[in-house]
Amino acid sequence: MLPQPSRRRISPRRLAALASVSALTLALCTSAGNGRLSPGAFAPGAGPSALSRTSAHGPCMIGGNRSVQMSEGIPTAPGYTRSTGTVRALTLMVDFSDAPGEGDALDRYREFFPQTREWFATSSYGRLDYRPEIPVPDWLRMPKSFRAYGIERGAPFDPGYRELVRDIVAEADPEVDFQDYDLLNVLVTPNAGPAALDTVLSVTFAGNKEAPTADGVPVANASFVYSRQDDGSGSYDRTGYRVLPHENGHVFGLPDLYTAEGGGAVGHWDIMSEDWGANNDFLAWHKWKLGWLDASQVGCAAGRGTREYVLTPLALAGGPKLVFLPLDAHSGYALELRTRAGNDEAVCRPGVLVYRVDANVDTGMGPVTVFDSRRDSGGCTRAPNVHAELSDATFASGESFEDREAGIRVTVLAAEERSYRVRVTRASAAP
Ligand SMILES: [Zn+2]
């Protein structure tokens, strides 16, 4: 039996806040982390071959138990799309008889590219060469009407959804060799289905072992984007594409970081939490998990005593990026330096971000929790429709984070534009 896909849930409070903005449509997404999948076929797996670590990093490579569908654990389970090197993204623009594509299909493509490719190039420091390819540069008409698939009611594994995937494969197959690609993007004509605020449609099948096969390979990692992610702030042209890097984050094995309460666990510090509005990069933890950091860029603070570490801005290439303090075999604290640069152009309070990662907490259930250095401040961002409170969560020079129970203290010693120094004290070594 298939596990239940985790879905993006919106709290009534958050919905009310969103609904108060006129003309707001916000595309949200469902993550369909479908348990473990057929490794190797459509996707060789993100983690094990790409991840850079040494034996000293062992205690920091926390893992989740098998019941977790999509885990923050390192390495990433097999079956997802490889996240380093050249990745070929088969990108299809799909329409229906009752929702015919308006205008040129390439205009739909241009809503997401080259922005998505550039976003990944920047975030990965050039390690992910993401190549969108459009062997069918026109609308791919589905044999049934949109209404007939029942997608507006559907969960990803509903019969109608499976039928849609099968039909996409069948219609594209004469012109596409699916063996050539590492992942599939389906850009649905934006006039298909209800407004995104009413019904959440964008979805990713990540490592789906029930996927239909094409040219002998299962289409196991596929992102579907519906509607337009316009948060009403006037930034759609610059930021509307980010639903796709979020959905693609799932095909690389990353879980959703928002929870039933919305973006309150991580705020705007990772695109897997909120993917609209003001810009946001991946957490350093995700960059390590994706194979975008060298071992030398990750400090594993597992031993007892006091040590100092240097952190350089996460958004800029080179230098140390992540310090991790394991608490046990499945969780720990992460430290990183967030400044306004690269994909982090909207950071309003530079400083050291402190968060807890738990590989036993599943997608959408809060696997990452950011600690707020300024609780109940209201935050520093002016961007609309984002979780504001955590936007000033970072720790500045002279400030400390403490977990007395765990015997852990982190102090930011010195802050310069290009590097911060932090002191980490542990009363006991990681077990
Ligand atoms: Zn998601």
Write a compact overview of the structure shown.
It is built from 9 helices and 18 strands. The chain has 431 residues and is an alpha/beta fold. The chain folds into 2 domains: 12-266, Collagenase (Catalytic Domain), CATH 3.40.390; 285-426, no CATH class.
Can you describe this structure?
The structure is a single chain. With 431 residues, the protein is of the alpha/beta class. The protein folds into two domains: 12-266, Collagenase (Catalytic Domain) (3-Layer(aba) Sandwich); 285-426, no CATH class. The protein is 15% helix and 23% strand. The chain has helices at residues 12-19, 47-50, 105-110, 115-123, 146-149, 159-172, 236-239, 243-251, 284-289, and strands spanning 29-33, 85-95, 128-133, 139-141, 183-188, 202-206, 213-214, 217-218, 222-225, 298-300, 305-311, 322-326, 331-338, 351-358, 368-370, 400-403, 408-415, 420-426. The strands form four sheets. Strands 1, 2, 3, 4, 5, 6 and 9 form a seven-stranded mixed β-sheet that branches. The radius of gyration is 21 Å and the shape is globular. The protein starts with 11 loop residues before the first helix and ends in a 5-residue tail after the last strand. The structure holds zinc ion. Zinc ion (ZN) binds next to strand 1 and helix 8. Residues 1-32 form the signal peptide. GO terms for molecular function: metallopeptidase activity. This is M6 family metalloprotease domain-containing protein.
